[in-house]
Design a protein that fits this description.
alpha/beta; Rossmann fold; 7-stranded mixed β-sheet; 7 strands; 40% helix
Length: 263
């Protein structure tokens, strides 16, 4: 399922930037979501555009696939190439214990991103009045959606000009103990982060509920960003005291990554 949101006054005579967002069923209407919360993307985007704080843009919401969400969003290269068999077994066991898998875990994020880049984006480009270039194409998500957004801009730096990664789920599983994935992800980023001169990356996290796992891991990623040449003009990490791991919290601060990427 794909939702395409067009701003008020959308016109074929105007060219729009495009923001691709994961977990599409959670973006707009709290009345239809499983937890009765939403990002309120349409309201925030409308307010920012009408106040002139961002360029005109459309939002392409890709619904998650339910039980396949975790394999779709889990960065495949660091899992398959940078972990050994024992470490992959450890992650599989942790995910099975948390109900996110049965047996050996197998990410399929490379296929998911291939769908976005080779099928979905060409459809959007030919159907809507949009800029097709990298500098007008962005991707965003939260939790595992934040992780896959970062993976997307690293794997397809020629397609995506920036990523917004809210409450990025650095553990990959639901434990930081005996977990080799955060280190593998850092090693991956050291070699695969896109050129800081042509890309923008936004990170954030809270410190409540699941977000309590993130601040220490995020600070380690911040060090990688600095060493890779990212500065305040093309990268920011925001820490939100008291924010938890929920659409309600992400909605409260969504204007910040929108302005950062689309000003």
């Amino acid at each position: 399922m794909i939702d395409v949101w067009l701003p008020y006054g959308y016109s074929d005579t105007v060219k729009y930037a495009v923001l691709y967002m994961h977990d599409g069923q959670m973006l707009y209407d709290a009345a239809t979501t499983w937890n009765k919360q939403s990002w309120n993307v349409d309201e925030t985007a409308t307010q920012l555009m009408q106040s002139g704080k961002v360029r005109p843009f459309i939002v392409v919401g890709i619904w998650n696939s339910g039980e396949n969400r975790h394999p779709d969003y889990f960065p495949q290269f660091p899992f398959e190439i940078l972990l050994n068999d024992s470490e992959r077994d450890t992650l599989s066991a942790q995910l099975k214990q948390s109900g996110r898998g049965n047996g050996q875990f197998k990410p399929q994020s490379d296929n998911y991103l291939r769908f976005l880049v080779s099928e979905l984006k060409p459809y959007i480009d030919r159907t809507y009045s949009v800029h097709t270039e990298r500098e007008h194409t962005f991707i965003a998500g939260s939790s595992m959606g934040g992780l896959i957004s970062l993976y997307a801009v690293c794997e397809y730096p020629e397609v995506f000009g920036g990523a917004a990664c809210l409450s990025t789920h650095w553990p990959g599983t639901f434990s930081v103990q005996n977990n080799p994935f955060p280190l593998a992800m850092r090693l991956y980023l050291q070699g695969r982060l896109p050129d800081a001169a042509t890309h923008k990356i936004y990170f954030d996290c809270g410190d409540q509920t699941l977000d309590a796992l993130y601040p220490e891991l995020q600070m380690q990623i911040d060090s990688v960003m600095k060493l890779s040449g990212y500065q305040s003009s093309n990268w920011t990490t925001e820490y939100f005291k008291g924010h938890d791991h929920s659409e309600k919290s992400w909605a409260q601060r969504l204007h910040i990554p929108f302005e950062f990427l689309l000003k």
